[in-house]
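Q: Please design a sequence for this.
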């Protein structure tokens, strides 16, 4: 079930009303959440509900057994059971065909053709997200950082919690699970800010992301037809498409959860204003980057075993992150680019600061912030080419065509071949500028608090304007009403 669908527009108000009617009875409330979550997920394909149930059951039982186990050996054995089952599902559905194709290509290099075909495997929506969420539970128990729960209903509801089930944020049990043990009191401010976040998320998804998708799909699916500024424009629009698409999901998830009294972690923090790739990853998909830090980078040794080992660990984490996003060489390259730049930033940190000081390019000045933000955004956009391209050859075709100059497109009817006319392109540009301005203001002064302190008439003018824009330019505008990008991961 999509957040931007009529189905969800009917589903969520019903769940919201029933939730608060049952809120005094904790058991009834959690039963409602679990049933609603399974209905939400099963709306896509009920057959894959079994995977969520199995993962939940395995980690609920294994978590209790790890806590009771007396020897370190038995604890490790039990943790391995959880890892094998959960990662086994993930690898089968997500990576089987990748390794089959790699195996075939490896033999083809030596002139040997294998008569093997890829399997017809459907990737379950959100499997990477709920797998990481349940794994963090058992790993934290193994590390003695968390005690297992005896409340099966709360645990199953925690794993399947519908607002963030499919595309995060990836929550830790230590933060979200205890919220299923307490009765939440109806809070008007939480409900109001929650629906405001939902509205803002729908604006980003339906007005910006889905409109940008038209140009992006046109160029990336037909790379031989485009060059120069067309490729640059499509790449920049993809940067905003994926950000608005993914952060919109997080906004709606956080907002929906907040209306029911739940607090989900922040997943994005204006990442395109970052002044380095290191800072970018502190602001982009925060729940995933912190997950990799805690469960991959630190177990590898983190920064405790010398600088070269630290560089290797950082690079490995980003290559693994690339593989997590998709079973393709393009995702590995995307992860490797980010890993390489972060290692380079860390290795040259002192030297770069000295150079910047000498030439007067300080990061705390406006000129410095603008310069470093533009450089960082350019690197991120270049890496996005590999992320979005359907193949390595497509990515290279697009990159090679960038030096070609064809700025005349903006003054001729050739603009139509990008899929959007000038009117729609202006709407998209204004929407992106509005988004960036709102993020700048929000970093200086919380917009929710700001609106809260305004007159009733002004607040409702803002609310009604958001609804109007979503309906006119989102529901009835020229856009590609596709599912959220991160559903495929």
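A: Design:
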């Amino acid at each position: 079930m999509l957040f931007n669908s009529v189905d969800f527009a009917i589903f969520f108000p019903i769940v919201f009303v029933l939730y608060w009617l049952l809120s005094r009875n904790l058991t009834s409330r959690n039963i409602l959440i679990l049933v609603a979550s399974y209905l939400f997920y099963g709306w896509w394909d009920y057959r894959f509900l079994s995977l969520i149930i199995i993962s939940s059951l395995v980690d609920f039982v294994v978590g209790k057994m790890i806590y009771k186990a007396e020897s370190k050996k038995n604890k490790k054995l039990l943790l391995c059971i959880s890892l094998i089952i959960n990662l086994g599902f993930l690898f089968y559905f997500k990576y089987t065909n990748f390794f089959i194709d790699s195996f075939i290509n490896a033999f083809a290099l030596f002139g040997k053709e294998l008569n093997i075909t890829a399997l017809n495997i459907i990737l379950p929506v959100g499997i990477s997200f709920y797998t990481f969420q349940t794994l963090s539970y058992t790993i934290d128990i193994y590390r003695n950082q968390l005690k297992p729960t005896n409340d099966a209903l709360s645990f199953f509801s925690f794993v399947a919690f519908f607002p963030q089930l499919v595309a995060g944020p990836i929550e830790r049990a230590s933060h979200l699970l205890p919220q299923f043990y307490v009765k939440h009191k109806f809070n008007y401010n939480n409900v109001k800010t929650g629906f405001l976040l939902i509205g803002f998320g729908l604006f980003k998804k339906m007005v910006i992301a889905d409109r940008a998708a038209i140009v992006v799909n046109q160029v990336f699916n037909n790379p031989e037809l485009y060059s120069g500024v067309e490729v640059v424009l499509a790449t920049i629009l993809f940067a905003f498409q994926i950000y608005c698409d993914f952060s919109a999901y997080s906004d709606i998830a956080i907002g929906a959860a907040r209306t029911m009294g739940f607090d989900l972690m922040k997943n994005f923090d204006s990442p395109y204003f970052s002044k380095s790739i290191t800072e970018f990853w502190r602001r982009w998909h925060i729940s995933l980057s912190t997950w990799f830090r805690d469960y991959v980078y630190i177990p590898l040794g983190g920064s405790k075993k010398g600088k070269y080992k630290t560089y290797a660990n950082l690079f490995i984490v980003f290559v693994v992150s690339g593989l997590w996003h998709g079973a393709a060489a393009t995702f590995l390259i995307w992860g490797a680019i980010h890993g390489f730049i972060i290692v380079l930033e860390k290795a040259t940190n002192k030297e770069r600061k000295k150079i910047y000081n000498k030439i007067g390019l300080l990061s705390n000045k406006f000129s410095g912030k603008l310069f470093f933000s533009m450089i960082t955004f350019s690197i991120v956009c270049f890496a996005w080419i590999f992320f979005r391209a359907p193949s390595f050859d497509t990515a290279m075709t697009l990159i090679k065509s960038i030096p070609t100059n064809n700025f005349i497109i903006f003054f001729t009817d050739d603009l139509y071949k990008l899929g959007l006319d000038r009117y729609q392109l202006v709407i998209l540009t204004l929407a992106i500028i509005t988004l960036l301005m709102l993020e700048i203001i929000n970093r200086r002064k919380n917009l929710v608090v700001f609106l809260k302190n305004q007159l009733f008439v002004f607040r409702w003018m803002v609310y009604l304007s958001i609804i109007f824009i979503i309906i006119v330019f989102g529901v009835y505008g020229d856009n590609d009403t596709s599912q959220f990008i991160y559903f495929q991961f």
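Q: Thanks. Anything notable?
A: The first helix runs from residue 6 to 21. Residues 190-275+363-488 form one domain.
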